[in-house]
Amino acid sequence: MGQYVAPIRDMQFVLHELLKVEEKLKELPIHAETDADIINQVLEEGAKFTSEVLFPLNHSGDREGCHHDAAAKTVTTPKGFKEAYQQYVEGGWAALACDPEYGGQGLPIVLNNSFYEMLNSANQAWTMYPGLSHGAYECLKEHGTDEQKRLYLPKLVSGEWTGTMCLTEPHCGTDLGMLRSKATPNADGSWDITGAKIFISAGEHDMAENILHLVLARVPDAPEGSKGISLFLVPKFIPNADGSIGERNPIFCGAIEEKMGIHGNSTCQMNLDGAKGWIIGQPNKGLNAMFVFMNAARLGVGVQSLGLTEVAYQNALVYAKDRLQMRSLSGVKNPEGPADPIIVHPDVRRMLLTGKAYAEGARAFASYVALQIDRELHHPDEEVRKEAGDEVALLTPIIKAFITDNAWIATSDAMQVYGGHGYISEWGMEQYVRDARINLIYEGTNTVQSLDLLGRKILMDNGAKLRKFGEKVRAFVEENGTDEAMSEFITPLGDLGEKLTKLTMEIGMKAFQNQDEVGAAAVPYLRVAGHLVYSYFFAQMAKIALEKEASGDKFYTSKLATIRFYFGRLYPETATLIRQARSGAANLMALDADLF
Ligand SMILES: Cc1cc2nc3c(=O)[nH]c(=O)nc-3n(C[C@H](O)[C@H](O)[C@H](O)COP(=O)(O)OP(=O)(O)OC[C@H]3O[C@@H](n4cnc5c(N)ncnc54)[C@H](O)[C@@H]3O)c2cc1C
User: Fold this and answer.
1) Residues enclosing ligand 1, CB less than 6 A?
2) Measured between alpha carbons, how far is 299 from 292 in angstroms, rounded to an integer?
3) Is the pTM of the predicted complex or chain greater than 0.85?
4) What is the residue extent of each domain of the chain?
5) CA distance 197 to 187
6) Residues 6 or more apart from 502 whose CB is under 8 A from it?
7) What is the pLDDT of residues 221-257, one digit of tens each?
8) Residue 454 in contact with residue 526, Cβ under 8 Å?
9) Ligand 1 centroid vs 406 CA: distance in angstroms?
């Protein structure tokens, strides 16, 4: 069923040539020893594990799905998932970017990020089981007590136990302030938690011996709304003091959802009936603590979509070289055959290049943000840590929404390359489209991401974080502005930077009169910002490729062609997006709800 070959050459280009990670990691004492050899070795081993172990389970996992046994209250994952997870744990993969204090390998997040791209290309549904554990690890590490860290972190790090995030309830998803799950205190410091959660990914399964649920609930007399939410650790089995498995906690899966994609991942309704939990952080400060998890997960969702874009593109490319249909408009290209391969047709190339450009742009962008997270966590200079953190905060909603929107386009195009064969399930292409669709919805819908970007991260901050990022773009434009060969990339980059600044000010002014102006502009605004970020990275990559093309290495020729395609065919949508963002709230809000 198709193929997956990890794009190691492009990953190495991004890590070594574009981001110069080895040099950057030397600035971080904890990662100073992570050299190019270690990075390349992890990429190669990761490529083997993902393509040989996980990829073969992708299509079968989609077909089989998960099975819920209502009487036993258990969930069985598709055939082979459990064994693959065992191999993952034994290979030490869960521990890759975790703290050695808890048994981790202490490697940087930027490297883990590349490994996660491979995992998601190979099998997104499977990857969500360990993927959520990493978020739980980050959250507990930052907000857990010493005892919680001692008891739980080594198990999460080894992968013996997995984690979940239990936020959503039937009546509230985006608006978590309305959640109703209740926590009542016990004399021993624990809490009894009662409530119903829905849509909980990896909420119940058979892959690990224990599951640690991070649950949002309200303590007695909590303030209304989001200010009254607390976070609790609710293990499926309550561990004994020595870490061994103890009593079963009453947090059970009532049903699993039938859904459009990611069938191999169990999406569970979870019922808590006086389940024992332990508070993480302070009462009523749960959302604050959960944000650590949510931010990690938002980068993770972007990388899910990057993985799907890459694998869908790869398969479409193989097919387009093989499938013979019609003759090229500009003359026969395959005289020995009854027709030409479809890759000769301009529009098939457009679809392939869309996938290639969106994969390569997302890879550069996500790797950059992952490296900034390493700097935010470990740079010895407080000022650098803060600047990196501000940039990560600004770019996170763009990572989540822009990459996932693009993957929806790219997987759909990849499917289209197959014609009718893409729509039937035999070739596996329609699965990528179905799997990609959820990424626009969960972890805060893409609309919510755009409101976070424009409202919270930009306007409420008076544009400070955006200005800082803009200074980097401007410096690059100035540095390369007189280079003739770079002008085809620098001109659109500089132009879009100016337009985005103007657009931001315009919306900010309108928002003083009417806050709906923010909601009306936010979605196209985020796409414009996404294109500014991609233009910035593509222009940097073009500079390297122009310098190295003369070496004869065709990788750089291919890179330049992709970048030219991006600026010629994808970037121009910014003109329409800016018009949409400027068109204001009136054309959306004029119609009375009864008149729709
Ligand atoms: C397969 C799957 C897995 C999931 N995994 C998890 C999980 O592991 N843990 C978990 O807790 N949850 C999980 N979720 C839930 C997911 O995060 C929510 O579905 C999502 O946050 C949206 O909430 P909702 O479905 O209630 O939609 P609603 O909040 O009801 O939103 C409906 C629509 O209104 C829009 N909307 C809402 N408010 C605004 C606003 N202010 N401005 C503009 N538009 C707005 C939304 O963007 C959306 O389009 C999962 C969901 C699915 C389908």
Assistant:
1) 165-168, 173-174, 199-201, 259, 267, 438, 441-442, 444-445, 447-448, 451, 519
2) 11
3) yes
4) 462-589
5) 26
6) none
7) 999 999 999 999 999 999 999 999 999 999 999 999 9
8) yes
9) 19
